[in-house]
Design a protein that fits this description.
Elements lengths: L2 H10 L3 H12 L1 H18 L5 H11 E6 L1 H7 L6 E3 L16 E3 L5 E5 L1 H5 L8 E6 L1 H10 L6 E3 L1 H13 L3 E7 L5 E8 L5 H8 L10 E2 L3 E5 L9 H5 L5 E4 L2 E4 L9 H5 L5 E5 L9 H10 L1
Parallel strand pairs: 1-9
Antiparallel strand pairs: 1-7, 2-3, 4-5, 4-6, 5-8, 7-8, 10-13, 11-12
Bound molecules: iron/sulfur cluster (SF4) (2 copies).
One iron/sulfur cluster (SF4) binds next to α11.
Length: 297
């Protein structure tokens, strides 16, 4: 048995079923996600079929992603010590029943691999190598078992360059939490609603406001400085979720549907937008604040 297989086995403890799920999930990453994407697309036509609702809820409870601001991603890609926070308090950040552990083991060990969502949804070839594993556990498994998905070891600064390249192309940054990977963090991806199964599943389930979501807001809302704003409209163009709208020359911002991704802040030529921690949203996955959060919650 390869070292990374043994490590995965140890990670799941007595839950052999989860080890098997995790093992085959990565081994057959692309077909697994391709089938999931077909199921997600079929929801459009089968939403009337009531027995599917509990199955949908079960999946949504076990597979979800936390939106990261660029600053929060930067803190992950400059982390140089192990972080292991297994606590119910994490539900303030990731409000789900399962898959809430925040674990980064050897966080400088980073691997990038093909994204099965982008492959399934025919994203441009240049965009496909974009799923990032942070930590030796998942990273070494990808290198040892998943050669067909083109894994390669990269540095922390290369990972950040990938994040920035995709953010410039209107992709948000998401940290995935999945039961299939040990109920914890570990995979960070660059996602666009046109080529991300989890964002599409959330959209088809009725969106963020209906509570059935795979995407957890970053925890930030956006403040607007009207003195600086020149009403150029870039923030409306950048927002993938319709949280900014211009009507009769006036800018309207809807905090409830804002994911706090930060793309508008980065695109504003006048620096008129600033992310702030919104007390009405889940807490950010801000590694620096995490220790304080845990003593305070
Ligand atoms: S991008 Fe900035 S300057 Fe342009 S409309 Fe939005 S807030 Fe105003
Ligand atoms: S308003 Fe800005 S921060 Fe909020 S979802 Fe849209 S682009 Fe992201």
């Amino acid at each position: 048995m390869k070292d990374s297989t043994k490590a995965m086995f140890r990670k799941h403890g007595w839950r052999v079923d989860r080890f098997i799920h995790n093992y085959y999930y990565f081994l057959f990453y692309y077909p697994y996600v391709k089938i999931s994407s077909i199921i997600v697309q079929s929801l459009k036509y089968l939403s009337w079929f009531k027995p599917l609702i509990p199955i949908g809820k079960m999946a949504f409870n076990r597979y979800h992603a936390k939106v990261l601001s660029r600053e929060d991603a930067l803190k992950i890609f400059t982390l140089n010590e192990d972080l292991r926070i297994i606590s119910d308090k994490n539900k303030k950040i990731i409000p789900f029943k399962y898959a809430t552990k925040i674990i980064f083991q050897e966080p400088e060990f980073i691997v990038v691999m093909d994204c099965p969502c982008k492959k399934s949804m025919h994203a441009p070839l240049d965009d496909i190598n974009s799923c990032i594993a942070v930590g030796r556990n998942i990273g070494s498994f990808w290198l040892e078992h998943c050669q067909k998905y083109n894994p390669r070891k990269i540095t922390q600064s290369e990972a950040l360059e990938i994040i920035d390249r995709f953010r410039k192309k209107d992709h948000i940054t998401q940290a995935f939490f999945k039961v299939a990977t040990g109920g914890s963090t570990g995979v960070i991806c660059n996602c666009h609603p046109d080529t991300c199964v989890s964002l599409q599943a959330t959209r088809l389930a009725g969106g963020l406001d209906k509570g059935l979501t795979m995407t957890v807001k970053s925890g930030y809302s956006v403040s607007h400085d009207s003195e600086r704003c020149i009403l150029c409209g870039h923030c409306e163009e950048k927002c993938l979720f319709g949280a900014v709208k211009f009507t009769d020359g006036k800018r309207k911002y809807i905090a409830d549907i804002c994911l706090g991704c930060g793309l508008c802040e980065e695109a504003c030529p006048e620096k008129a937008l600033t992310l702030y921690v919104d007390p009405d949203k889940p807490l950010p996955l801000d590694l620096e604040a995490l220790t304080r959060i845990h003593s305070r919650i």
